Every structure is written in C-alpha cells, then in structure tokens.
Amino acid sequence: MRDSIVLYVNGTRREVGVDAALQTLSDYLRLCYHPPDDERLTGTKIACSEGDCGACTVLMGTPNESGTSIEYQSVDSCIAFVFQMDGCHVVTVEGLRNAGGLTGIQQAMVDCHGSQCGFCTPGFVMAMHSMVEEHHQQGSQASHLEEDEIRLGLSGNLCRCTGYLQILQAATAVDLKTAVAMEQLFESQAMLEELVRLSRSSVCIKPTKGDPRAVAVPRSLPDLLQFRTDYPNARLVAGATDVGVQYNHGRYEPQQVIATSKVPEMQTLGIEDGELVCGGAATWSEVDKVIADRLPELHQVLLRFGSPQVRHLGTIAGNLANASPIADSIPFLFVAESSLILASRRGRREVPICDFYQGYKQVDLAGDEVIESVRTPLPPGEVAIKLYKISKRRDMDISTVTAAFWLELDGEQITEARVAVGGVGPTVVRLPQAEDSLAGKPLALATLAQAGRIARGLVQPISDVRGSADYRSQLIENLFAKCYYDLSSTLSVPVS
Amino acid sequence: MPEVGNAIPHESAAGHVTGTAAYLDDLPRRERELCVVFVGSPVAAGRLKQIKGLDAAKATPGVRCVLTHKDLRGPNNFGPILSDEPFLVEDELSYIGQPVVVIGADTSEAAVEARGLIELVCREAKPILTIDEAIARESFIGPHRHMFSPGSEDDQLFQAAFDKAPHTIAGRFRSNGQEQFYFETQAALAEPCEEGAVRVISSTQNPTETQVVVAEALGLGMHQVVCECPRMGGGFGGKETQSALTAVMVSMVATTTGRPARLVLSRAVDMAITGKRHQYQCDYRIGFDAAGRILAAEFAFHSNGGAFADLSTAVLERTMLHADNAYSIPVMRVTGQVCRTNLPPNTAFRGFGGPQGIAAIENGIEQVAAQLGIDPLTVRKANLYQDGVAGRQQTHYGQIVRDHVLDEIFEQLAESSQYERRRGDIEKFNASSATQAKGIALSPVKFGISFTTKFLNQANALVNVYTDGTVQVSTGGTEMGQGLNTKLKQIVADEFGLSVDRVRLMTTSTEKNNNTSPTAASAGADLNGAAAVNACKKIKRRIREYAATLLANVEKGFVASPEHIRIEGGMVFDDRDLDPRARLEFGEFCGIARRDRIDLGARGFFATPGVDYNRETGRGNPFFYYTTGAAVAEVTIDRLTGELVFDRADLLMDVGKMINPGIDRGQVIGGFMQGVGWVTNEELLFDDSGRLLSTGPTTYKIPNITDLPGTFHVDFIANTKHVKNVRLSKAVGEPPLMLGLAVWLAARDAVAAVAGGKPFELALPATGEELLMTLTKLSVPSEPRGTKPSVNGAPTNGAGASKSAARRR
Ligand SMILES: Cc1cc2nc3c(=O)[nH]c(=O)nc-3n(C[C@H](O)[C@H](O)[C@H](O)COP(=O)(O)OP(=O)(O)OC[C@H]3O[C@@H](n4cnc5c(N)ncnc54)[C@H](O)[C@@H]3O)c2cc1C
Ligand code: FES
Ligand code: FES
Predict the structure, then answer these.
(1) Which residues cross the membrane (chain A) (predicted)?
(2) Is the pTM for the entire model greater than 0.95?
(3) Phi/psi at B70 (5° precision)
C-alpha cells in the first residue's frame, strides 16, 4: 500500500500528496512548477473547464496488459483529477519538444494554416497525436488518416476561428509512417517498469488529525470494497467525466475520494453465455471495441457519446450511477433488460436495471456498494433494435431525448415490443402501454404511429435549455414512425 | 521575390502548435500578484439597497482590498458612444452579473471566500427581457433612426409604390443573438508603476479605449496609463468594448494595493455577463412584380440592446445599411430602434449588425419566390446591383455600388456548384421521400468596408529599421488570430525588399501607437497596413536621398539621383550602376546610414479618403468599398426529428488581391462556419429572470468539426476593377460570416418543400426544435396520404411553438 500518488509528466517522475492529488490535472499542469526546468506547463489551455472543447487535451499513457509498452490516449485534463493519473505517464504539448523540432503533426498544422488565434491548437495537436498513437498501437498499415476517422477523432476539439477545414487538411496530410510515436519520444524502460509496478499496489492517503481529506486508489476489488467501508463518505470516482464537471461548476468539493477505474476485476469485458458482461470500470472506448460488431446500433450511439477524450475515461458504471435521465446507455440497457451486479463487503446482489432507478438521481445503491459489472442479454437474431440519440448538435452533445426500441419479429409481425425513452421524465422509463399496442401487430407505419401517439400521452417532459416540453413530446411521438421507416428500409419491408 | 501574395504561415503558428504562444493567463506570475474576483448583481432589474459583509470580506485572511463604486476616482460611467454604463453599480441594477464589488486577494481561495461573505440586499423589479416588452414599455436606447432611399421620402409616393406593385408580402422576422465564444475569455493584468501610473496588459481589440476608460475610472491622465495587448485567443468583436470592465477591475485593485492584479473570467461568467450579437425583430413589407423584381420595400428593425448603449446604435446603423444586401431596390425605407432591456449590453460581433440586416432581406427574397412559385435564385438575379447600369447601382443611403463583380460571381458559382442540376435532383428527392426534405440556396453578401463612424477610419504605425537591416513594426492593430501581423510583416518586407524573417511585429501598446481605433470593422489590415506603408515610404525617402549621394559615381557619370535608388532583394543600389560591387547589402547600408546620422525610423499615418456619412439624413458614402461573395449550401432535414445535415457548401468571394491567400482562405472558412453556427445550433436561452441558461459549450453549441459539410469548395474570383486599398487587397474578416446564411436559407427551402405553398416564418437559428415545430405546424391536420398518418405527427395547436419561442430572448 502506498501513501502517495506517483505519475510521470513528460517523462519526469512526480510523487505528490493529497493537495496535488485532488487538483484537476490541468490546474496541476498549469499552476505548479514542474521539473526539470521549474516550468508551469501552460501549453495546455483552458477554454471551458467542462470537457467540451478539448483545448486542455493531453495524453494519458498506461502500461498495456502485458506490461510491454505504454499505450496513450487523449483525455481532457480540465475534468480529470491528478489522483486518476496514478501510475500513468501524462504527456503535454511541451513533451513533444523531445522530438527536437516540430513533430510531423505540428508541422502539418503550421503548413496548412491549421491555427488562427492558436488557443485551441495545442489541444488539436494532442488529439491528433492520440489518433496516431492508436494506429501505432494497433500496428496499422495505413499511410494516412481517413477523413471520417479524422472528423470523429477530432470531434472532442472545438475551434471557433478556423472553421476546421484547414485542420482537417492538416490531419489528412500527416504521414502515419513517419509520424513520431510517444515511444520514440520517451524511451524509458525504467519508467515502463515503474508504471507496471505501480499498477499492482493500491494507494491510500489517509486523513490526518487536522485534515479530513483522503484519497484511495485501490488496485483490487477487495481493496476497493474495504475502502468503501472505511470511508463511507468518500465519493467514488471512475473517469470523472461527470464528477469533474460538477467540481468545476462548484457543485462538488472533493474531500474524500475512491478511484474505481484501476480495479482490474472491474475492467473485464466479454461475452458469456449470450450475455455481454461489462466491468463497471470499463471505459466507453473499450466497451465499443467489444460491441461494435455485435450491437451496431449501440456502436452508432457510442460514436456520438461525448468525444474520444470523454470515452477514453468515462465508464459504464459512471454513466449508470450518475443516473441522468439523458444518459445515453440507459435506454438500450432498459430494453435489453440488463442487470447490475452490486458488490460490497457484505456480498453481491443483482438488480434489474429498471429497478435500479428510483427517482430523479435516486438509485438503489447502498453506501458501501459499488457497481461491479453490468450484464446484458444480447438480442437474439429475430430482434430488431433501433436506438435514438437526439441532440441539438449531432456530435459531442448531451441528448435532448433518447429512445430504444426492441422489437421481436416473426416475419412482419411484432411478437414482443420493448420501448424505453429518456429525457422526458426524471428517469429513463419503459412505456408499457405503447409496448402493448405494438405487440401482435404488423410492423407497419400505422402501428408505430399509433403507439407513438400513445407514448406521447405517457410522458411529461419539462422545458429546459436543451428543448421545450412540446418539442420533446413531439420527438417521442415521431421516433416511433422514424423507427418504422428505419426498420422498413433495413428489413426491406415496403414503405406504405 | 515579393512577400505579398504568399500563403506564408501565421507569424505565431509555431508558437501555437507548441503551446509556447502565451495568452494572458499564461504570462508569468508577477511577484506579489493578486487574484481578482467580483460580486455581480443577483437580479436583472432593481435597486441595490445595501451591501452587507464588506467588513467581514476585508477581514478575511489574504484579502487585500474590497472595492465598490466609492473607490473609483473618476466619474462612474463609460461607453464608446453614449456614456451610460457605470463601472460598478451604485444604485440601479441593470442585468444579472453586473459588477458591484471587486475583491483583490493573495489567493483565489481567499478571494472566493471573501466573495461568499458579501450579500447584496436588493429590491427586485420586473425586468424587461424581450424586444416586445421593451416596445410595450417604450424602453429605448438612442433615437429612432430612418434611412429613406432617394425618392421615397414622401409618404404618398412611398405608399404609391406599394399600391402599384402587383404583389405584396409582409411579415415579422426574428433572429436570435450569438455568443462570440472567443476561446480565450476576457482577461487582464494590471501592474502598478511609479508615480501612480499603471500598465494594463489586456486581451483587448481596443487598447486605446482601454487606456481611456482605465484613466477615467482611476482619475488618471491618459499619459499615466499604458495598455498592451500581446495577442488574443480570439476576439470577434467581443473584445472591442467589453474588455474594458475586466481591465478597470484589475487596475483598481493594482492602484489601490500597489500590487499586480490579474483577472481571467471563467467561461460561465464570461458568457453570463458579457454582451453578444444582438437579437433582432424585423417587420417587413415587400412589393414586387411577377418576375420577382422588388419595386418597394420597407424594413422596421428593433434590436435588443441590453442594459446599456455600448455599440448598439452603431450596430443598428450597419443593419440598416445592409438591409439591401446585394440588391438594388428602387424605393426603400429602413427604420431602426435599439431597445433597452435587462440583459448584458449587447455589443460587436463579426458582421456588426450586417448579418441581421442581410438575413431580413434574404428571408424576404425567399418569401417573394414562394409567393410567385419561382426559384429564389431567379428573384436574386432579378434584383442584383448592376455595375455601371443606371437605376441599378444606388443604395438606399445614396452610395453608388461600383467596380463589383456580383454578376460574375453568380454566374460562376451557379455553374461550378451545378445549382440547376442539383435543384432538379432535390425536387425529385423531395417528391419521393416521406422522411427527409432537402433544400438548396445560393445567397450573396455585399459588405461595406469602413467604420461608419468616420473618425475611426485612421491608423498610425511605427517602423524602426535597425543597423543590421532588420525591422520592427508597431501599430495600434491587435492580433486575435486573424493574421493581421502576418500581413503587415509581408507588406513591410516588400516595402524594403526584404524577406519576411527580417521583419517582426511588436506587441501592441498605447505607448508606441496613440489614439488608435479598435481592430474591427474588418479594416485592421487596410488601415494599419496603409499606415505602415506610409511610415516605410518616409524612411525610404531618406534612404534614397542618402544612398543617392553615397552611391553617386562621378567617374561613371552618375550624379546623385534619389529616383535611381532601388531598395530591393535585400540590397540598396543605383539602378544605373550595374557593377555588383556598387550594391550595398541592406543591413550594411543601414549601419553606414546611421553613422551618417540618417533617421531610420518613422511613424506613418493613414486616414481613409472619401468616406462620409450623415447620420441625421441617412445619406452619404459610408464605405470605402464593398467586399462581395456568394455561397451555395445544401442541407437535408429529417422531417421526423428536425435534425439538419449540412451536405455541401460552395463559396466564391471577391476579396481583391490577397496579401496572404492562406490567411484569407482561413478567414473565409472560419467566418462562414461561424455564420453557420449562428443560423443553426447556436441558441442563447435566458430564463424568465433574465439569467442566461446556455453558459458553456455543454449547452451552447458552436459548430463541431463533424458539422463541416462533406463537400466544401472555397474559391476566389479576380476583380480587375478593384483599384483601391493597400496592395489592392480587400477586407476579408467579416463578410464571409454572412455567407453562412445560405445554410439557413437552404433549411428554409427544405421546409418550403414540405409546406407546399403555405406561407410560414422560420426563426433564426433553425435549430432542430425550430425546424421540427415549424414542420409540425405546417403538416396538414387531415391525414394527407389517405390512411397514412402525417409523418410529422399529430398537429399541435401551436401553443408548443409559442412556448418555446418565449424562451428565446
Ligand atoms: C463533454 C462531455 C460529454 C458527454 N457526453 C455524454 C453523452 O453523449 N452521453 C452520455 O450519456 N453521457 C455523456 N457525458 C457524461 C459522462 O461522460 C458519462 O456519464 C460517463 O459515462 C460517466 O462515467 P465516469 O466514469 O466519467 O463517471 P464519474 O464522473 O467518475 O462518476 C459519475 C458518478 O458515478 C459514480 N460511480 C462511478 N463509478 C461507480 C461504480 N463503479 N459504482 C457506483 N458508482 C460509481 C460516481 O460516484 C459519480 O457519482 C458527457 C460528459 C462530458 C464531460
Ligand atoms: S478546457 Fe474545454 S475541455 Fe477542458
Ligand atoms: S484557432 Fe482560435 S479557437 Fe481554434
């Protein structure tokens, strides 16, 4: 058990106590003086502090499973905490200096007029480096990034000046074969070895007499559950993509925290007996890799879930425990009738997801419990699934309304229907009356439209910054018809 | 080799990509630096009865000062046009977040703790938030303005023009505001200097105004205040006047405590308390004939100015001056009134009122086309200004639109974008799709270049040539990413025949350039470039005179003759003397010149010739020239969800001879996409108390890279008729923003396809909600295709739409 957080910043080892551990990563980088040159790393910019612009993007490196190399991913440093970086190598734009001149990516941005005011630029550069890292890690043979890949890969970075076209062109110009890898910039066996060692020992910075603060980074499930019992008031933090935003908005002051994201037992991902099993700490980018082929509809939603930076840290348990009525994963898990495995030192219990939610941000989770995993029955072949995420802006936006349709079909007949909607009440809900009206009917526009009208009567949305109540009601109604049209085009049922 | 015309990278590009280009918050911490926070009004309207907790705040450990309006040393009001805005609230509370108390402390924790101890006791009043409420309560800023085209002054003649028109349409068009969303928020750092003076480093487009305002607030002479701006992380107009408050707050703390003080607004505070693009309402009436030729038009604008005048009257003026856009309208009346409301004072934003004027007429054009059942492009062509054609070249304010290539732009763009073919394809698509609607639009922009306030059309520049032949240039122009400094570098390099790496642009400072105008109105390169050229010319004259004697060669028969001296290719030489040894390297020459006591520095000045405008009569030549262009946009709307996909854009602009094509292209793309944001998803929402709800990128959605159309062509057209301005260039900053309207017009076109001839007004921005609710209202109550239900769902009674509109201020 360690009592300090150890991370590397641009290849330099840093060991920090509770003060720094509870800072956001961007504050730590920008406000503290870092060795070797006693430098504030101000290349990382802050333009929003809510994970939505990517100006603060840095790379987070963690040892791969076999411990043979470090894998790097982009994260938003403004909403991540330093304690989450325990056992990680953080690379900021300043770290690219090791290349001895501009990296190929930086040079392309210069040559293509990819910057105007320049404030967003370091973030874009780091996000591009993250994309290149992914190619290197996968041993990809591609020579250049594809345009669609660039658009999605950079969807977590906003720019107000350039209108993006020249940035897109810069990213397209990058030669993947010669693009420098972090491995080349930071060739350090010692660093790798230490990161691997660190990944095996839990951290607990205990409260002291005058200082109630505590930071725990458990590296095993028993340690996690022990800490959960020892510090009943501590906040669980996984990717902090919700907690970090709340912190920056002054809605949460971290006093005691327990990191859940480094517990190997909670990172399992796989398919067992027709069930998708996701460890609670699995990040969305990892989940996506497993489900992309099996659940193409969910894959489409995940492509638009936050941004790469958010998906690299954000976890499934975080999404579920945060209990937002517009959380994008919940409607699907509702219609798939997933269950949550909750663990505590007292043991395990399984809760159907519909029962987990008890009211607005009210969940069936005891003070000593954690969401250990989520089990989701995979839809059999005769089930058609449609998922909808309606948001003001297509990408990188929180949903206004979500919906999931699970229709079991026998030819053109609907034998069973499950529908869940979000954003129209305090929790995601199933719509039993609408489901009933679909069951036993033909898959036809009239059937779906009728169910849509019923559904509209079942929800009582509110008006807020993302949309008016009437708009939401209208969407709920229309999504039924849309589901029909979308299915009829893929199932080749005639449109009429 | 000339440098002008080359697409060299932005001068700070290497700094941008490495993160070494420093913005205000990146500048090294000063010794004993204080952190500044302020307490803002909790209500949008009312009176401040009492400030509780001042003493407790002052007593907080680490707190160095707690200041109110009583600590100001000068009059408590400012404003660029009407001086109606207090620095700090005395009595009347005018918008939520309006600064009341300023705190300086050793740490941000101490400052925040002190802020928590202060309680503002207010008597709350009912705020005025909307244009309608302001009109009802006659809450206005400035006079009601008129701009009547020559011949339309007479009421009867004016009415007669409408009576004679075969068709008339009328309606009310609304456009919402827009947040600048510069990436670097408002920020300033003040350092106390000797003898009570202060140096303010500010992220500002307007160092001179900052100097003036700080001097006034602190009761100092202007000579005691220096304002510097190294660079901005974006401005877009939002830092033309509104950077002043931040600068005043840090300066008050610095002069009170004798310690440096810095304030960098958080995004949420910045968005909540600073002004934005104005929301507008326009009542219009258009008379036209069967061919779509507009015979008479009337536009009555009301803008939501917010709590104080700021630049609102000037913004409104530009709206009125752009209500014609690119169309010659024989009889036209434009009126305008700024409304005073309890929102933060609205201000400059790229386009400066132009977009709202242009949106109004372009919406009108679509309505005209719909009424006649013809393609809007036909209507546009029928009304375009015609260069040199009598009766088709005078604006409603009297200026002649000349030397333009609008016709050519239309022709070339319609061709290159295959407008006609795509129009046909879209009609076919719409006829066959039950779930989607496509739309297309080609719309132009004609944007007047110059400040409409005449005196602002001036600039000065300081050029210092050193004895190694390198050059430093300082102007009042500020660099916010638009590439001004890069262009100036290219211009000055060419003046001396040097390569760009021998020229450097220096931090903008009122110490070097006094009484300067804001970097605004797209005129930064025009004005400062011309002033720099003027300075270079002075130095070159001295160089020529001196070199003439230095290089004269009596033996060869070359008497001293300045007109034969050339300053080119890094050399100074007499063009009659072909001997390479008789050429002096520029740096070597400068060294010799200095030893001979030749002045190698100069200050240049420029004032735009021939711009004049009479605000009272609404007549004159406010603009030096016009920048023009056009865009074609195509969109697809999901009829069931209102979701919009922007499929394709084709842009074509006349921006003269480009000083830097790489930078100009960036301005066109960036401006266009900002316009696209304004007309699609950027939605400012306030609650009923006047509090902004969309205070960050989570809820305020500027375009994302995935919003770039799949096909995006950007091109430029040559215009040999344009023979003005520095190096024959044209201003490029603002005009492309208005091309973003093509996307809104395409969305409107798609809705029109569903509307099937029914008239409708689409508000701007056309968010998914606005589109879906408009489509829903338009969908026929009776099921259109026999037994099939309406694809847009059950009709609502319309209450839904009006409820959502109520949230839009
Ligand atoms: C820019 C941005 C975009 C976003 N976009 C989307 C989006 O498109 N769709 C969407 O649904 N969400 C979105 N989110 C929200 C967020 O990313 C997701 O909810 C994410 O899944 C949260 O996971 P996390 O690990 O970061 O949670 P954290 O922030 O770490 O935690 C969230 C909550 O879960 C609790 N918790 C975490 N782990 C456990 C556990 N194992 N057991 C019990 N409780 C636990 C925490 O105590 C906390 O209360 C976005 C967020 C940001 C910042
Ligand atoms: S600062 Fe915007 S995402 Fe971090
Ligand atoms: S270059 Fe200014 S925000 Fe991207």
Answers:
(1) none
(2) yes
(3) -65, -20
